[in-house]
Structure formats: structure tokens, C-alpha cells
Amino acid sequence: MGNLPKRSSKRTLKAIVASVAVGAAMMFAGNVPAAYAVHDQAFQLDGDVAASTTTNIGGSVQNYDWSSLFGTSGEKLSLPTGFTASVFSKDFNTNANGTFNTSDATTYTTGSKDTLPISTGWQCTASNNVNSKIDVMNAYAAAYTDPDNGHQLLYFGIERNTNTGDANVAFWFLQDTVACNDNGTTASFTGDHKDGDLLVVSAFTNGGAVSTIDVYRWDRPNPSLPGSLNPTSVAHGVDCKSTSAGDDVCATTNGPTNGTNGTITTPWPTANAKDGVGHSLRTSEFYEGGLDLTAKGLGGHCFNTFTGDTRSSQSLTATLFDYSLGTLGECTSKTETTPSFTTQQIPKSGDPAITASDSAKITVTGISTFNATLKFFICGPNVPAGTGCTTGGDQVGSTQTITAQGTFSSSSATITEVGRYCWRAEFSGDSNAGVPSSKDDSTGECFIVTPRQPSLSTQAGTSPVDFGSPVTDTATLSNTADHQGSGGKGTDGSIDPTTGGGKAGGTITFTLLKDDCSTPATGTGTNPQSVNVSGDNTYGPVSFTPDAPGTYHWVASYSGDSPNTLKTDHNTACNDTNEDVVVRQIPTSISTAQKAYPNDSATISSTVAGDNLPSGGKVDFVLYDTLANCQAGGATGKLYTEPTITVGGQNSVTVGTSNTSVAVSTNTTVYWKVTYAPGDQAHTGRQSACAESTQFTFVNDSGPGTLYP
């Protein structure tokens, strides 16, 4: 199998996934001198895992240990104050009956060296037989930030299967994403070194003491070249139990003063060669250490990958045996965005346009300064429900330079169309510092612009009108929205448009219904009839001439101007009396004016019995307007003259007038003058000299009368 020493027990080394979830793992550091020793902080570097065995170093009590971070199965517990991340990796297997299993899928092979570039110098393979001395049971790590001085520290620990002989271990803190998948065969690692990667190398004895711990830095000032491991240690330390105050790196193991004669108990399962699977670690089978990154000026980088390995010596070119690899994500970035609103109605014509913006809260852990960018994108106006602006869209505003976490606002976008819009904020991260990128394209980044509901009021013209006359209607449209703009961003150019959309269009349709409110009126003209619309205004009047008298109702409908202005109707139930019109029948009137044609009669008689009137007698009838004119007997006031009537040959004769041409129509009195001239000398003539008169009194009907029938 590669470079691993063999043992007859066929046990395999299980990988140490000492994934240090260092929330501060993207640690920034200045050149600030350390205020305390690395083991003077809140965490116990005392050679066991129990928080109950508190220490008092540097004048402060250390209350926390690995049991403060992990539970009985290695599960993460809630982080105590100051701790930003933790990770536990079980690194051994058991058989179905609970006994130890020797299989291991992660070992170095084929000359892998710490001094070599990762992708070209590191290889992995699986092993079925790993020496117990280099076999790791569990590995864990934690990140801590001193709340007083802001120093960021890494704590790390490993459990070995046996304490035979002295031992050497190392830990890589890598900024790149590094992995190796052997798939049952030898395979190369993926990923690469970046400037500032750290290698921690330590040696310790089987008696329970750490002899040295050194930290080395990978230098790669030119990203186009692979760089190299600087052989000069950037930090050096010894056993935490013996070092003086002010140390920046130290490590220790479980020695005779720990537990029972050096044997400590773990809350979680572990295994050792003598006791098997259980909760015991014998002397020097447990190793832990700490490093103050800030104090040594090693911050400012994000360690995204952690490896722990066993090795042949402390030499930088030592043979590498077993390894454990895990994702630290020490530097994390999170982008959380909030749109300026979630729902807003499109404004009415004349009001200011909608301006939408986004706010992004950028949170970066593990590093305080970096070089990154932030971009805002908008998608719309027709993003499907339940989706976000995951790709595409249009950038709003210029790219912003971000050097520290905080909350940042986008430029404003002018929205002119109804629809569903979504923002996306993209934080680039800083690949040189190991800060990962992040974005927020969730549905919480979306907002909706709703259409406007217009108002339509109408007023019919004068009512009633006579049959044959037109009826009219007028409509007033208000509360419309302008049409969407064009030439800008978005799928149809309506975002930040270069050309305004103008007033709302569409049509208003006027319909005259009969009294049943369902049948269109018939007659002269167009019914229904439509007029074009251009925004808020009064439209009409329109007219129509019904072909029958009756009661009618105007109904008006506006088509709307999609998508910004909805349609609307008015008086569809015919209940607006302002829209009622009446066409009445042509009215008539009646008035009366009486007149009378005056007539008269006269009886001419001989007073001698048996005597007949002579032939040739003449009777004349003359009608006068007044008594005086009648008595004068002249032409003045003469109204009517009956032609002379000839009488005779009878003792008595009655004659009369036949006036049909001269009428009296006013209240008055008329007078008759009647004369008789005999036809001989033997008889006398006679006259009725205005002795008779007729008084006319008329009572007429001046109208208009009453309806009939």
C-alpha cells in the first residue's frame, strides 16, 4: 500500500477529519502582541477533554474543554461565548458486533510530501492494514475569538489508537478546496496551495509530553507560480503544561497527572489497542494544541480545508502516513438581501414612478478586511411565481467595491410595469484571501407591482326627450396608470426606460339598453359604440336615436390598458338613475273655439181674413253689429244682408235667412232689421226696426285638454 508501516492486526487507519469549523477561521490578524498565552484563554489545554477539570492559568479560570463543545456521540453542542465554530470527526469503524474494524479509505501514498504542490505532489489510496501507532480514532477542532482583544485562535485535537513509542503529527490549514477521491485506486488530490497556508508539525513522547510544535507558512506571492513551503518556522512552542505565559502556540497530551494514571475518559466513543472500543484513552493517546493566529500575524486568510496526518518525523520532507481531511469553511460569507418593498401599486398618471431598490447585508466570518465586489441584478417583469432571479437579469447600478462586511444598498430602478420582479445580489468573495462568494436569489428577494383600478362615472343627457330625438351619454375616466415605458432593462425594456409609455389607452364602450336592462335599443345610429381613450379625461357625448318611446338605460365599459390599468364597468345593473333616459310620445293638445251663424225669420200676414198678400212683395233681412247702426239703417255696422225674398198670393207667409258665411265667435249682441214692401198699394209695408237681437256668450276650452282615450 504506500508508505504505511504494517502490523499483524490488519487494522486500518481511519482518516482524521479534524474539520476545524473556525468561524474565525478566516482569521484576520494584525501585528498586535499577544496579551495572554494561548493556554490562558477560556479553553483548557490540560491534556484531557473534560470541562470539569478546570484550570487557572494566567490569572483566569479556563472553564471550557472539548466536552463543552461535543456530546456523547460527538454531536455538536451549543457554542459557549467566544467560540465561533467547532467540528468533530469520528475516525474509526466498528463491526456489526461492536468490535473494532480496521478498514481505512484515506492514506497518503506514492511519495506525497508536505513540501510538494497539492495537485501534482499529493496522492491518496485506501488501506486495509494501518499500524496502530499512526491510526487516529477521532479528531476535532474549534475556533475562538477573544472577546476582550479580538484575537482569533485555533484549537485542535486527535485521539490515537496506541501510545507505542514517540509520535509525530501535522495539520494543514488550507485556503483552497482540497479533496481526494481514490475510488479504490490511487488518485491525485485536487486543489492548490495559496499564499498563507499553514502547516503545524508536532512531536510528542509516549510518556505524555510534547517536545515541540512548529508552524510553517506556504509562500506564494505570485499566484501564477506554485510557491513553496518556507522552511523557517513562523511560530514555535512546547508543551502547554510547562511553557511560560505569553506563548502563542503550544500543545500537550494526556500524561500521568491526567485522569487515572494518565488514562482519561471521553464522553463519546473511542478505541485503543488494549481496551478496544469504549471511552478510554491511555497515556499519550490524546493530543491537543492551540495557535493564536492574530498574535503571530498569520490571520487575514480563510482556511477552508483542514487536514491532520500522522508522519514519520517532524521533518518537512517526512513520509506521510494516514490523513484526515475535512471542510473547515473557516471563512464564510453570507449575503442576505431585503427589497425596498414587497408589494406596491402602479402609480396613477401624473404621480411619481415607482423606484425599487435592494439592500444586501454581507456577513463574512473569519476575516475583517478583504477585497471583494458586490453586484445587484433585477429580473422582471414576469418572473414566474415561486421562483427567483437565479440567473440572468440586468445589473442595476455599477459594481461596488467591498472591503468589510456591512449592509449595502443598490441603485434605484424605475419600475413602469405591473408584474413580479426579483432581485439578486452577488458577493464575489476574495479568492486571494479565501473568502467564498455568496449570493441571495431567494424568493424573499421578490416584489410585486399591482395594476391600478380605474374609476368610470357617467352622466346621461337631458331626459325626457321627444320621440325621434337622440339621447346622449358622457363618461369620465379617472385613476388610470400610464402605459409601461420601453427601451430600458428587463425582458421588455420597461425597467429604467428611455422612452415613456404615455397615457393609458383602450376604449370606452357605450351601450343603450331597453328597460329590461338586457336588450340593446334599436334605432338610428350605432349601438353599442366605442370611443378611444387617452388617459384620465371626459369622453363623449355619444348619441343614439331609439325607434320607440320608452325608458332606456346607458351602460359604459372601459377595456383597460393591460397590464397597468384594469378594466371597469359602470351601471351594468341599470341602477344608476343618472343613466336613465325616457323617450316620450309626441304630445298633442286640444282647444275649442265656438262660432255661430246668426239667422232670422219673419212671418208676413194680411190682417183681413181671406185676403191674400199681393204678389211681388219683398222681404229684406239686414244684420247689424250694434243697435245704433241698426237703427241708422246705413251701411255702417252691417254684418250680413240676406238676398231679397219675394212673397205674395197667401194670407200669411214665413220666410227666413240662410246665413252660412257670416259667423259670430265672440261674446256680443247683434241686431236684425227686417222690412216688408207689398206688391200693391192696397197693403201696407211693415218693418221690425231693430227690435230683435241675439246675445252670444261663448265658453271655450283653451287646452291642452286631457288624454283620450
Automatic annotation (TrEMBL):
Protein name: Hemagglutinin
Stretches for region Disordered: 251-271, 431-503
Signal peptide range in chain numbering: 1-34
Biased composition (Polar residues): 452-462, 471-483
Compositionally biased tracts (Low complexity): 252-270
Keyword Signal: yes
Keyword Secreted: no
Keyword set, alphabetical order: Signal
Organism in which the protein naturally occurs: Intrasporangium oryzae NRRL B-24470
